[in-house]
Every structure is written in structure tokens, then in C-alpha cells.
Specification:
heterodimer; A: about 130 residues; mainly alpha; about 0% strand; rod-shaped; B: about 280 residues
Chain lengths: ~130, ~280
């Protein structure tokens, strides 16, 4: 597993040190001492940025692969979500068709039930195959 | 026999339900990953600072400043687009995870109820409607098992990639934190150099105030970057917990860890989206 925790902590510590040096309201920042501290803070910050750049360079090759692989996993999961949704849609359509049959007092209620049984059984086969 | 088979499955499923915590974690994480103004502005922040550093007064005060800013801008140019792409992919992944963790997804009771009413209306006998309803009710079980297996596979298979992406994004956010200071300190240096070079006390006072205002701006921008880094670290850490506990995603171990970090993610989102 990649972990930059140590480097991240170093960058944060450097940056906090730079901030502590400059954020001193009692010292006139325009005085020679103030300017010297400002320069030190800038040098420390430059180091922090450089270290961050190195850390990111080290992770970049792995990152490209990880993004591609994660995208593939998302696509596969999205397909499953769509299939589950299709089962719902098929059931909703079946319910709607039967509701129409009921409203017109179909002369063939047994036929409707058989057709519905067949649809539900085929949906069940899809889900059984994937469960 | 078939009824017994489904009864066993239903009992098994009783321990798999209630993925509300996983869903909440995934939703919050997806929103955090989608809200990344810190990466969008990473390289652009250097443009004005480099112009200032190129002025004669600034070059005289610090001859290496321009070159250092260029190095920082190069890091931003190289990694900014990657960070945006990684954050976007992570956001889509977590949104997909949240959708799969929706406990209501395989609920077909509404359809079953509607069909039963219609069957009654067409005066189908109890045996006919009963057969269809039994199948419909049983259908929920494999449907939910399908979903549960998909979510487990997705988490386990994706965890190594999520770890790489969150590690990169956390480091990128921390580097942005320093980049914001690098840019801000250049503005401060410009104000200071200008103040030292003027004899006008009024202008000096204005420049001094600009110095302190820039300090405050740096702190605010750094807080955003810091929150983003903490959020990405939390997403990686929590996702590893999900992968380790993929067989019991609704268990107490998962709930406790996620419940601790969800407020952190929501707090980070507030800071990141604040203007």
C-alpha cells in the first residue's frame, strides 16, 4: 500500500515552522531582523514545495494505473446497477400491463397470470445467476 | 423445498442489511472529492506571483525567487490535472458505492402489491395469485444477494486503487498548502520591498496592512488545503476498513469507524465550499 504519511508530516511541519516564523505581530516585518526571518520562511516553504513535488512524482506511475482500474470497476458496478434497475422496470411494466388487463375486465385472466409467471420466472433466473 | 431455500437466504440476509453508514460515508466522500477548487487554481496561483518576482526590485532583493516560483509552477502544471482527474474518479466511484449501498434498491414489494391487486380485480383464484406473489416475494432475496455481492466485490477489488488515489490526493493537497504559502510570501515580499523603497509614510502604512492581510489570506487558503488532505486521508483509511470487513459491512466495527470520520468529511466539505 502506498503511504506518504511520513513525507506529508514533514511537509506540514516545515510549513508550520515557516508560518510561525513570519506570523509574529510584535516584530516589524520591515526591520532587518524581520526581513531575515521572512527570507528564512520563504526558503523553508520552497523546500516544502520541492519535497511535495518529489513525493507526487513517486506516486504518479501508480496513480495512472489506479485511475484506469478504478474506472473499469466503476463501469462493471454501474452495469450491475443498471441490470438490477432493469429487473425493477420489467416488474413495473408487468404490474402496469396487468392493471390494464384488470381495468378492461380481460376475458383471459388465466392467460395473463401465466404470462406474468413466465416473466417473473425469467427475472428470477437472471438474479439467481448473479447472486 | 424452494421455500426452505429462500428462508435460509432471508435469514442470511438479515445480517447484511442496514448499510446506512456505508452509504453516508460514500456520499460525503463523493461530495468532498467533487469539491476541489484547490487543485483547479493550483497552477494559476503562480502566474501573478511570477510577474511580481520578475520585476527589477524583486530580483535585486531575491535573485532566486523567480526560479523557485517556476519550479513550484512546474510541479502544479504536472500534478494539477492528475489531481483533478483522480478526484473526479474517486468521486464517481464513491457515488457508485453509495448507490449500491441503497438498502431500498431491490425492494419489489410495491410491484408485488400492485400485481396482487390486479389479480384480485380480474378475479384470479387464490392459487393463481398466490403462485405469482410467492415468486415475486422470493425475487427480492436473490436481487439483494446480487447487490450485496456486487458491493463486496467492488470494495475489495477497488481498495488498492482507492489507496493509491487517496494517498496521491492527500499529498497533492498538502503540496498545494505549501504552494499557497509560496505564492502568498511572494506577494508579501513585494509589499515589503516596495515599503522599504518608499519614504511616504502613508504608502508604507498601506503596504504594511497589505502584508498582514496577505498573511491572513495564506492561512485561510492553507486551512482549505489542510482540510482536503485530512478528508482524503480519512477516505483512504475508512475504505481500507470497509475492504477488511467486506463480509460484514453493517457490523459494529465498520459503523464505529465510519461514524467517527463522517463528521470530519462533512466539516471538510463546509470549509472547501465556503467562499
Amino acid at each position: 500500500m502506498p503511504s506518504n504519511t511520513g513525507l506529508n508530516e514533514l511537509i506540514i511541519a516545515l510549513q508550520d515552522a515557516a508560518a510561525a516564523i513570519t506570523n509574529n505581530p510584535t516584530l516589524d516585518p520591515l526591520s532587518p531582523e524581520g526581513q531575515k526571518l521572512q527570507k528564512t520562511a520563504r526558503d523553508i516553504t520552497d523546500c516544502a514545495v520541492t519535497i511535495g513535488g518529489f513525493a507526487l512524482d513517486a506516486l504518479q506511475p501508480e496513480l495512472r494505473t489506479a485511475i484506469e482500474n478504478l474506472k473499469n470497476n466503476i463501469d462493471a458496478a454501474s452495469d450491475t446497477l443498471a441490470e438490477i434497475d432493469n429487473v425493477h422496470k420489467a416488474l413495473s411494466i408487468a404490474a402496469a400491463i396487468l392493471a390494464v388487463a384488470a381495468s378492461v375486465a380481460s376475458k383471459d385472466p388465466v392467460g395473463s397470470v401465466q404470462a406474468l409467471e413466465s416473466l417473473v420466472a425469467s427475472l428470477q433466473n437472471i438474479t439467481d445467476a448473479n447472486a | 423445498m424452494k421455500a426452505l431455500h429462500y428462508a435460509v437466504l432471508i435469514v442470511g440476509l438479515a445480517g447484511c442489511g442496514d448499510l446506512a453508514t456505508v452509504r453516508e460515508f460514500a456520499r460525503s466522500g463523493s461530495e468532498v472529492a467533487a469539491s476541489q477548487p484547490i487543485f483547479a487554481d493550483w497552477e494559476g496561483g503562480y502566474t501573478r506571483a511570477r510577474q511580481l518576482a520578475a520585476s527589477a526590485e524583486m530580483k535585486a532583493a531575491d535573485p532566486v525567487r523567480e526560479a523557485r516560483l517556476k519550479a513550484g509552477a512546474d510541479i502544479a502544471a504536472e500534478n494539477g490535472p492528475f489531481a483533478l482527474r483522480a478526484a473526479q474518479t474517486l468521486s464517481i466511484y464513491l457515488r457508485t458505492l453509495a448507490l449500491l449501498a441503497d438498502d431500498k434498491l431491490p425492494d419489489v414489494s410495491q410491484e408485488a402489491g400492485d400485481i396482487q391487486k390486479s389479480l384480485a380485480a380480474v378475479k384470479v383464484g387464490a392459487s393463481g395469485s398466490g403462485a405469482v406473489n410467492a415468486i415475486l416475494t422470493a425475487l427480492e432475496v436473490p436481487l439483494d444477494l446480487w447487490r450485496q455481492r456486487t458491493i463486496r466485490d467492488l470494495i475489495v477489488n477497488s481498495d488498492p486503487h482507492v489507496q493509491v488515489i487517496t494517498a496521491f490526493l492527500a499529498t497533492a493537497a498538502i503540496t498545494v498548502r505549501s504552494a499557497k504559502a509560496q505564492v502568498g510570501q511572494t506577494f508579501i515580499e513585494y509589499y515589503d520591498v516596495s515599503a522599504i523603497n518608499t519614504r511616504d509614510s502613508g504608502v508604507r502604512a498601506v503596504l504594511r496592512r497589505a502584508h498582514w492581510e496577505e498573511e491572513a489570506r495564506i492561512q485561510e487558503q492553507q486551512q482549505k488545503a489542510q482540510k482536503a488532505a485530512e478528508a482524503f486521508e480519512a477516505i483512504g483509511r475508512d475504505h481500507a476498513v470497509l475492504a477488511r470487513n467486506a463480509q460484514s459491512l453493517s457490523g459494529e466495527a465498520v459503523k464505529t469507524v465510519l461514524a467517527n470520520d463522517i463528521p470530519l468529511l462533512q466539516g471538510a466539505l463546509k470549509v472547501l465550499t465556503a467562499r
